[in-house]
Write a structure and sequence with these properties.
The protein has 450 residues and is α/β, with parallel strands linked by helices. The chain is built from 18 helices and 15 strands. The N terminus is likely disordered. This is Sugar ABC transporter substrate-binding protein. Keywords: Cell membrane, Lipoprotein, Membrane, Palmitate, Signal.
Length: 450
């Protein structure tokens, strides 16, 4: 298909574009697209182009409605799809195999390389305007750009932060930890208070752990030498693994399946004093536990070296134009409006409390204005998010089959929690489980075992 890099080239190696070169120096204006037509002006004489859009994101219907009301030459037909690998992603993959994928699809960052390799996500490098490139946070654009080719446009990027129960910190005289050593001491102090309270829970999924490993300097996948080098148990990952293993062995943290009833009950009943998650989770907490209004605050994640702060992310979505799109230019106009226009974010936020951190940073003010600060005791959490987003480390590359990698990792974490293995051995198992999938794709691979 014109404008797309060949699958053979993609399979040879996908090299992440250095973030210093990800953006073009180009001044932009505040409009979403120079081709947009508003109902407030003269009715366009152009015929209407209909494009299809699939997403599991809350607020997408409101965004589509706002777009359709203000654009007369493009109409977006929206379909809400289930979230998760067995829901929306399975539906998208099946549709692509049948040749009828939607024009625009929402893809989370870990899945972007896989959909690019499979040829589902179109190469949109030459379709992204310099204006939009200049607005996007470099770290976000870097996560969707490989071999200097871009395959999706970021909507949000979610730096990891620390949520803590200020009321309980005040009650026990605890200080907010700034280093991981201080966090260990906090965990022990919480345990000494007696009862069932613990400092946090370790979730047996990939999302939380990958953010910690990323911040520690891990690089699970590296393509800089012309092949996919896999190193899921590199030195930074082992450091993180052993840190959390110690907390588990000392019975200082709960260990839970992802999105479990156990974790929900622990937070709801005040049994954990801190939580680790992306910026988006501040809004999710408000929606899930309105009765805890005023009890929580948000702080930066603890650091290994405060002099050299670094962060990973937890969450975030992008928009891709599929290979089957018959109207890619119209699809790109919709995407640009959706990620960069204030009215798009206002429409999304109208569906309920949200704290997503926009990849187009000039929209931060829109999010800040819509957010009810009273839940977090008046704290300006967006100023914190803005500060933390700058700490997201460059160079992280997601692998070609992160769904499978994450499943092996999650299963191994669960076994380790039951006493069979450790977090470190879980990462080695995840690496072993990843290699067959990569080789089945025909990728040139190497692995670094330690």
């Amino acid at each position: 298909m014109p404008g797309r890099q060949s699958r053979r080239s993609m399979l040879a190696a996908i090299t992440a574009l250095p973030l210093t070169g990800a953006l073009s120096a180009c001044s932009g204006n505040d409009s979403a697209s120079s081709g947009s037509s508003s109902t407030s002006g003269t009715k366009s004489s152009r015929s209407t182009t209909t494009i299809t859009f699939w997403s599991a994101l809350r607020g997408s219907q409101e965004v589509v409605d706002a777009f359709n009301k203000t654009h007369d030459h493009i109409r977006v037909a929206f379909e809400q799809i289930p979230s998760g690998t067995s829901g929306g992603y399975l539906k998208l993959s099946n549709a692509a195999r049948a040749g009828n994928a939607p024009d625009v699809a929402t893809i989370e960052y870990p899945q972007v390389p896989g959909y690019a390799i499979d040829g589902v996500a179109r190469d949109i490098t030459d379709m992204i305007s310099d204006r939009l490139r200049a607005k996007l946070l470099p770290q976000a654009l870097g996560l969707t750009t490989f071999e200097k080719r871009t395959y999706s446009v970021p909507l949000d990027v979610e730096p990891m932060v620390l949520h803590y129960r200020k009321d309980l910190f005040d009650e026990y005289g605890f200080e907010v930890p700034t280093t991981w050593d201080e966090y260990t001491e906090l965990a022990r102090a919480v345990r000494r208070t007696g009862g069932k309270r613990k400092v946090t829970f370790f979730s047996t999924d990939m999302g939380q752990f990958s953010g910690w490993a990323w911040a520690a300097g891990a690089r699970w996948f590296d393509t800089s030498k012309g092949a996919w080098n896999v190193s899921l148990a590199d030195a930074p990952t082992r450091r993180v693994s052993r840190y959390w293993q110690r907390l588990i062995d000392e019975d200082l943290v709960y260990v839970n399946p992802p999105n479990s009833r156990e974790a929900d009950a622990q937070v709801g009943n005040g049994l954990v004093l801190t939580r680790h998650s992306g910026a988006w989770d501040a809004g999710a907490q408000m929606n899930a536990r309105p009765q805890q209004k005023g009890l929580w605050r948000i702080a930066p994640q603890p650091q290994w070296d405060p002099a050299k702060p670094a962060l990973g992310t937890n969450g975030g979505s992008t928009f891709a134009i599929t290979k089957d799109s018959k109207h890619p230019e119209a699809a790109m106009e919709f995407i640009e409006w959706q990620v960069s226009h204030p009215d798009a974010l206002r429409a999304r936020l109208s569906s309920g409390a949200s704290s997503q951190y926009p990849a187009v940073t000039e929209l931060i003010g829109v999010g800040r204005a819509a957010f009810d600060r009273s839940y977090y005791g008046g704290q300006d959490i967006y100023t914190l998010f803005e500060q933390e987003a700058r700490k997201i480390s460059d160079g992280w590359v997601w692998g070609p089959r992160m769904t499978a990698t994450g499943q092996v990792m999650s299963d191994a974490f669960a076994r380790a929690a039951a006493g069979s293995g450790t977090i470190e051995s879980s990462m080695r198992a995840a690496q072993d489980g990843t290699m067959p999938d990569l080789k089945a794709l025909g990728l040139n691979t190497t692995q670094h075992s330690t």
